[in-house]
């Protein structure tokens, strides 16, 4: 089994949004790195993922783990996080600036 991630250091940040997650992901989703180190300061979020590994009913219950709403997820979009709408068009790389509909 694989995991979505684990906190190597304090203030770890990982977000999965609107992504296919396969059955090879452990249902708990996330794994501790070194006991409880980093669990109080991390931010791990999931938003509208799909696929057999996207079921969140057995996910970890850490203080910094979140099932995000649309407003929270928007903070991690190309538009908001990297201001990609201002520079990505020049690269000819296809992208979606906001959340998928």
From TrEMBL:
Keywords: Aspartyl esterase, Cell wall biogenesis/degradation, Hydrolase. GO terms for biological process: cell wall modification. The keyword Cell membrane does not apply. SUPFAM superfamilies: Pectin lyase-like. Pathway: Glycan metabolism; pectin degradation; 2-dehydro-3-deoxy-D-gluconate from pectin: step 1/5. The keyword Protease does not apply. InterPro entries: Pectin_lyas_fold, Pectin_lyase_fold/virulence, Pectinesterase_cat. Residues 2-84 form the Pectinesterase catalytic domain. It catalyses: [(1->4)-alpha-D-galacturonosyl methyl ester](n) + n H2O = [(1->4)-alpha-D-galacturonosyl](n) + n methanol + n H(+). GO terms for molecular function: pectinesterase activity. It comes from the Eukaryota. This is Pectinesterase/pectinesterase inhibitor 25.
């Amino acid at each position: 089994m694989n995991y979505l991630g684990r906190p190597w250091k304090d203030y770890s940040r990982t977000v999965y949004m609107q992504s296919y997650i396969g059955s090879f992901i452990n249902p708990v989703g996330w794994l501790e790195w070194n006991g409880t180190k980093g669990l109080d300061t991390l931010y791990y979020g999931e938003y509208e993922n799909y696929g057999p590994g996207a079921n969140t009913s057995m996910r970890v219950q850490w203080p910094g783990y979140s099932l995000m709403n649309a407003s929270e997820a928007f903070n991690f979009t190309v538009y908001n996080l990297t201001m990609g709408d201002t520079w990505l068009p020049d690269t000819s790389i296809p992208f979606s600036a906001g959340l998928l509909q």
